[in-house]
Amino acid sequence: RWAIEETLKMTGGNREEAARILSIGARTLYRKLDKYRHDDSQRNSDAK
Protein backbone atom coordinates (compact mmCIF):
# COMPACT_ATOMS: atom_id res chain seq x y z
CA ARG A 1 0.00 0.00 0.00
CA TRP A 2 2.80 2.40 0.89
CA ALA A 3 4.51 1.84 -2.46
CA ILE A 4 1.29 2.53 -4.35
CA GLU A 5 0.58 5.72 -2.39
CA GLU A 6 4.12 7.03 -2.85
CA THR A 7 4.14 6.21 -6.56
CA LEU A 8 0.81 7.98 -7.05
CA LYS A 9 2.25 11.06 -5.33
CA MET A 10 5.32 10.87 -7.57
CA THR A 11 3.17 10.66 -10.72
CA GLY A 12 0.77 13.40 -9.64
CA GLY A 13 -2.04 10.87 -9.32
CA ASN A 14 -1.56 9.35 -12.78
CA ARG A 15 -2.73 5.79 -12.14
CA GLU A 16 -1.59 4.33 -15.46
CA GLU A 17 1.91 5.74 -15.03
CA ALA A 18 2.01 4.52 -11.42
CA ALA A 19 1.00 1.03 -12.53
CA ARG A 20 3.76 1.02 -15.15
CA ILE A 21 6.38 2.10 -12.60
CA LEU A 22 5.17 -0.57 -10.16
CA SER A 23 5.22 -3.19 -12.94
CA ILE A 24 1.58 -4.10 -12.40
CA GLY A 25 -1.40 -3.79 -14.68
CA ALA A 26 -3.55 -0.69 -14.46
CA ARG A 27 -6.59 -2.86 -13.66
CA THR A 28 -4.68 -4.48 -10.79
CA LEU A 29 -3.87 -1.04 -9.43
CA TYR A 30 -7.52 0.05 -9.69
CA ARG A 31 -8.64 -3.11 -7.84
CA LYS A 32 -6.11 -2.53 -5.07
CA LEU A 33 -7.18 1.10 -4.67
CA ASP A 34 -10.83 0.05 -4.48
CA LYS A 35 -9.95 -2.55 -1.85
CA TYR A 36 -8.04 0.02 0.22
CA ARG A 37 -10.99 2.43 0.06
CA HIS A 38 -13.37 -0.34 1.11
CA ASP A 39 -11.06 -1.36 3.97
CA ASP A 40 -10.75 2.26 5.13
CA SER A 41 -14.51 2.84 5.08
CA GLN A 42 -15.07 -0.45 6.93
CA ARG A 43 -12.50 0.55 9.56
CA ASN A 44 -14.16 3.96 9.99
CA SER A 45 -17.63 2.46 10.41
CA ASP A 46 -16.30 -0.06 12.94
CA ALA A 47 -14.84 2.77 15.02
CA LYS A 48 -18.25 4.43 15.48
Describe this structure in words.
Helix 1 crosses helix 2 and helix 2 (15-22) packs across helix 3. The protein is an all-alpha fold and 48 residues long. The protein contains three helices and no strands. 81% of the residues lie in helices and 0% in strands. The longest helix is centred in the C-terminal third of the chain and has 22 residues, at 26-47. The protein has a single domain, classed as Arc Repressor Mutant, subunit A (Orthogonal Bundle). The chain starts with a helix and ends with a helix.
Q: Ranges with pLDDT <50 over ≥5 residues?
A: none
Percentage of β-strand residues: under 5%
Strand segment count: 0
What is Rg? 12 Å
Q: Helix proportion of residues, in percent?
A: over 70%
**Biggest β-sheet, characterized?**
none
CATH topology: Arc Repressor Mutant, subunit A
Instruction: Return the CATH class.
Output: Mainly Alpha
Mean pLDDT across all amino acids? 93
Number of helices: 3
